[in-house]
User: What shape does this take?
Amino acid sequence: MANRVEQIGKEVERRQRLGRAIAAARTVRGWTSGEFAARCGFDGSFMSLVENGLRQLSSESFDVVAKTLGMPVDVLEGFASKRVDSERLGRWFKQAV
Assistant: This one.
């Protein structure tokens, strides 16, 4: 039972990190949550849940999010695996252009 609880905790933590990375990248792009959701073809409330780590993206939806942000999936995942800050994301976007 404790192992399952630990697994769930890690999954929640991963979703939260990914949500923060998505929100930070969106902010660097200068988009509101609603604008970004519309660009992705998602409902604004769904995107808010994702950014707050309360909903998980399917792999297809994650691909849409990364493409909309103009980031390769592995780069977005990399930012999610670390502490995200807008300055570092901003530098990445400037170098990628």
About this structure: The longest helix spans residues 2-29. The mean pLDDT is 87.
